[in-house]
């Protein structure tokens, strides 16, 4: 059984980054790499080699789905599971799921106490690592 250990998180809001960091590292025991924009994430993803990619959708320089499209062009990350976190409506979230290969969309605001278990459940369902 392979556990979810390494999460790459791209989020332009520093407060949400901090809450996510506490939720995943402190509560979930995961290793986290965080970037404020997609450009930096794309430059550094190979250094971190994530098990899962967690993306904000609405960012100023590059949207989450654009970041994911660039990541998918990297052969080593073509199949890395991805999840979006967004404050968009459920209809917009559904459209996001249809246009990308993301596994799920977690709505903002999210519960920091359950975020790691949500990601673990998504990871286990996608990888068969129950």
Distance between the termini: 7 Å
Rounded mean pLDDT is: 91
Number of helices: 5
Radius of gyration: 13 Å
Name the overall outline.
globular
Low-confidence segments: none
SS strand fraction: 15-25%
- Spatial order of strands in the largest sheet: 2-1-3-4-5
Strand/helix succession: EHEHEHEHEH
What is the β-strand count? 5
Structural class: alpha/beta
Major sheet summary line: 5 strands, parallel
Kindly describe this structure.
It is a single chain. It is built from 5 helices and 5 strands; from the N terminus they run βαβαβαβαβα. The chain has helices at 14-27, 38-48, 64-72, 90-99, 115-127, and strands spanning 6-10, 31-35, 52-56, 82-86, 104-107. A 5-stranded parallel beta sheet has the order 2-1-3-4-5, with helices on both faces. Helix 2 runs parallel beside helix 3 (64-72). The longest helix is centred in the first third of the chain and has 14 residues, at 14-27. The chain is globular and about 30 Å long.
